[in-house]
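Record 1 of the preview.
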Amino acid sequence: MPKPADMLAARDLAGTETAAGTAISWAETRAALRADRAHWARRIPGPVRLRRGYQAIWLYRMSRYAHENGWRMAAWLLWIVNGWLTGSDIPPSTQIAGGMFLPHPYGTIIAGAVGRDAAFGFQASIGGLYKTPDRDVGGGPGLPRLGDDVVLEPASIVLGAVLIGDRSRVGPRCLVLKDLDADTDLAPTDWRALPGRSAVS
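->
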């Protein structure tokens, strides 16, 4: 079975990312937004533009466009507005391909790189660890990179320079610190009952 590094190596994050040193065009940004709306339409009926999660992605796309075209102050101001309005933390340095689905943005942090048609549940997050970055797998030094069609269930977290293979699903409350192969389903551990305070030992 191929490793995530083999599948994700040198992949273009379609819809938002271009070759190194090339600014993101407005046409690429609009294509990514169209892919976002299409993914939302497949999952939730109704007006997409009124959803708080879509607004979070829209504001991220605007900040990313500004960031990659040299308007850094505008990019970070849009990041602040996004956090205030939607409760999400998606820095403009983050790379997210088209088709992002984020129905409940409050408390979600996305720092790294995300492939096409990803879905993040309530407070699902990716980011780095508080240590000196040991490697860059494509999401930035010490940050994760997710493949295409990856699903992060509510409260799942991916930390560090970790590769998540295509079509993987990270279950609720899972903490991922190591690479996952493609088509992997990671289930949370079962709850374990602890003796109550009045229990006799």
